[in-house]
Specification:
The complex is a heterodimer of chains A (330) and B (144).
Chain A (H helix, E strand, L loop, with lengths): L1 H16 L5 E7 L6 E6 L8 E2 L22 E5 L1 H12 L8 E6 L7 H7 L8 E4 L3 E5 L4 E5 L6 H4 L13 E3 L12 H4 L1 H8 L2 H12 L7 H5 L25 H14 L9 H5 L6 H16 L30
Parallel strand pairs in A: 1-4, 4-5, 5-9
Antiparallel strand pairs in A: 1-2, 1-3, 6-7, 7-8
Helix pairs in contact in A: 9-11
Chain B lengths: L9 E6 L3 H10 L8 E6 L7 H9 L4 E6 L10 H18 L7 E5 L5 H18 L13
Parallel strand pairs in B: 1-2, 1-3, 3-4
Helix pairs in contact in B: 1-4
The chains are: A alpha/beta (330), B alpha/beta (144).
The structure holds iron/sulfur cluster (3 copies).
InterPro entries (chain A): 4Fe4S_Fe-S-bd (IPR017896), 4Fe4S_Fe_S_CS (IPR017900)
Keywords (chain A): Iron, Iron-sulfur, Metal-binding
Pfam family, one (chain A): Fer4_8
Chain lengths: 330, 144
């Protein structure tokens, strides 16, 4: 990963010096251990802060919608899933390709800190990571453990089918193709919890989600972090009608929020996993999105948002679609 | 716990061209159907957004029905195909969340199917009576 960081800095310096772009959007080291945060490099001196690593989670494309970047030339660092999110915005004419310089990276997946924490007794502050060929070595003053990557990678990355942006669509690609793990897992295996929830009876499912959703603080981080949740005026911010208020004591309001959020991005989700990652309450939001993707694929054929050129499954409908509602009459 | 004499509240979104006409015909033909159904007329079943359905449950409905023209008969050609895709997805999501999917039905009822309108509402009413009040999806502050 280090080589990506170095390459990135060179490119960024070049772009800024030659005034090809006004700003390079990438990542810098955060204050927490193993935290990479979005960073805007605007001048030569900023460039040395840029990094790219296995904790460079967030998708940066949504910043382009911010007034701050309107009309500016912006260079953007993109993993595969980030590119998919941007592609949807490009297709919807939300941003202008001519204003952008796209720096694609060969992504090998990102590590989930929550999974990492479960592997070791010490806090992340006390640990160092050594990225070995096929394992991750975690060491602290207390213990040293080696874990296979499939245990600590994001489930989305394990299931990822598009880890590098299309070469023809971006201006440059950094890094080398490759994978952290050779273990081939099916999507169902990566999201095994979905199968477990489906097997529960209705009452158990209700109780499971009640426990999860009732923790929601309605902070909207999951919505804000999502690269494909890009409406100009969000339904939840509308004042007339105002669908939700700030009271978080009502399960019904949580249900409303989560059903609508998942539904609205059902055929747009690019599988970056950021929604669950940013949730302060660790609510497994990805299970809702992934469940919907599974249903859409089952009934209308597989479709990768931001990759496949055909229209999204909820943007059209056909006469011979399955009809689950009027079985008895047929 | 199911209350005695529980009368479920049903919200029925009916498309203007078929199902609303069907309900209207049931009325003019003096067919008796449960009066606890509140009909909301919409231009097309595909006008019904997911948030409208969720909102109905939050604020007092025990059951929600979306009714449109039979597939192939949509006044706008393809509206009800869209309804079908969306509602199917909504139903799998609410079922995944354990939110009693039986409280939500989608029916195709044409303008001359007054009898079907009547029987659909009657059946739905019976189902809802058995299920009882929709406490699991109700905003307890709504005053119902
Ligand atoms: S889903 Fe994971 S592996 Fe795929 S591009 Fe995104 S971060 Fe990389
Ligand atoms: S719903 Fe979650 S996983 Fe899907 S694109 Fe949005 S943030 Fe990423
Ligand atoms: S990030 Fe978590 S707590 Fe915040 S609104 Fe989303 S689900 Fe709720």
């Amino acid at each position: 990963m280090r080589n990506i960081t170095n390459e990135l800095r060179e490119i960024a310096e070049d772009l800024l010096e030659s005034k090809k772009v006004d700003v390079v959007l990438g990542y810098a080291k955060g204050e927490q251990p193993y935290q990479s945060v979005p960073f805007a490099a605007k001048k030569k001196e900023d460039v040395e802060n840029l990094i790219f690593d296995i904790f460079s989670y967030s998708s940066l494309s949504k910043y382009l919608l911010d007034d701050m970047y309107r009309g500016k030339k912006v260079a953007l660092v993109l993993k595969g899933c980030d590119y998919r999110g941007l592609k949807i915005m490009l297709d919807e004419s939300r941003v202008d390709r001519d204003d952008l310089y796209l720096i694609g990276v060969e992504c090998r997946g990102v590590l989930e800190k929550s999974k990492l924490k479960k592997k070791i007794d010490a806090t992340l502050f006390e640990t160092t990571l050594d990225l070995k060929e096929d394992k991750l070595a975690i060491s602290s003053s207390k213990e040293n453990v080696e874990v296979p990557y499939e245990d600590v990678l994001s489930p989305y990355c394990l299931a990822c089918e598009f880890s590098t942006p299309h070469k023809e669509e971006v201006d440059i690609i950094l890094g080398e193709p490759g994978k952290m793990t050779n273990k081939e897992l099916t999507t169902d295996e990566c999201f095994a919890e979905i199968g477990q929830i489906e097997k529960m009876d209705e009452e158990q499912r209700f109780e499971y989600w009640k426990k999860q959703l009732n923790r929601c603080k309605r902070c909207y981080s999951c919505r804000n972090a999502c690269p494909v949740c890009t409406c100009r005026v969000c339904l939840f911010d509308r004042e007339n009608p105002s669908y939700l208020d700030s009271d978080t004591s009502q399960l019904a309001q949580h249900q409303f929020y989560h059903v609508i959020r998942a539904f609205h991005i059902s055929d747009r989700c690019v599988g970056c996993g950021q929604c669950s990652r940013v949730c302060p309450e660790n609510i497994p939001l990805h299970l809702l999105n992934q469940k919907l993707i599974k249903e859409l694929n089952k009934f209308y054929g597989s479709y990768l948002p931001g990759v496949d050129e055909q229209p999204a499954p909820l943007s059209f409908a056909k006469a011979d679609d399955p009809d689950p509602f009027e079985k008895e009459e047929k | 716990m199911i209350e005695q004499n529980f009368e479920p509240k049903i919200v029925a979104f009916c498309c203007n061209w078929c199902s609303y006409a069907g309900a209207d015909l049931a009325g003019t033909g003096r067919l008796k159907y449960p009066e606890n159904v509140r009909i909301i007329r919409v231009p097309c079943s595909s006008r019904v957004e997911v948030q409208m359905i969720m909102r109905a449950f939050q604020n007092g409905a025990d059951g929600v029905m979306v009714a449109g023209c039979h597939p192939g008969d949509c006044h706008y050609d393809t509206g009800n195909y869209h309804t079908r895709r969306r509602m199917m997805l909504l139903q799998s999501l609410t079922s995944f969340l354990g939110m009693e999917p039986d409280r939500f039905i989608v029916k195709w009822i044409s303008g001359n199917e007054a009898a079907k309108f009547k029987s659909t509402v009657e059946e739905f009413n019976e189902t809802l009576k058995k299920l009882g009040p929709a406490d699991k999806v109700r905003d307890q502050r709504c005053g119902i």
